Amino acid sequence: MLDSNSLKELGIEGYATVRKDGLLSDSILPEYIDKETFSIMVATIYMGSVSAYNELHLKGPETVILRGMERNIILLQKDAKEIYALIIPIEVNMDEALKGFLEKVK
User: 32 and 87 in contact (C-beta within 8 Å)?
Assistant: First the structure.
């Protein structure tokens, strides 16, 4: 089960579960984030990457990583209808945070 404390233990600043049409299903996000705008952008970026892979006749993507100056955003498919978005400070190991997150949500 995910809560604010378990996210902090993993080094994750926030997460969202977003439907591929851009609607927010679930989230624990910092106050400064506009949840609706964030969820729409997550879906747009992820589905755009799916379109790029389709143009190359490839299956994917498995993960989309947006590397930032202060935070990284990881997008990955939850299931056929939803996407996870994780906000991770740059000083946190992304692979370890993602592994811990996936263990908690399964």
Answer: no
Long-range contacts of 59-66 (CB under 8 A, 24+ apart): 63/98, 65/94
Which residues have a Cβ under 8 Å from the Cβ of 73 and sit 6 or more positions away?
42, 65, 66, 85, 86, 87, 88
Model confidence pLDDT, tens digit, residues 6-50: 999 999 999 999 999 999 999 999 999 999 999 999 999 999 999
| pTM exceeding the 0.70 threshold for the entire prediction | yes
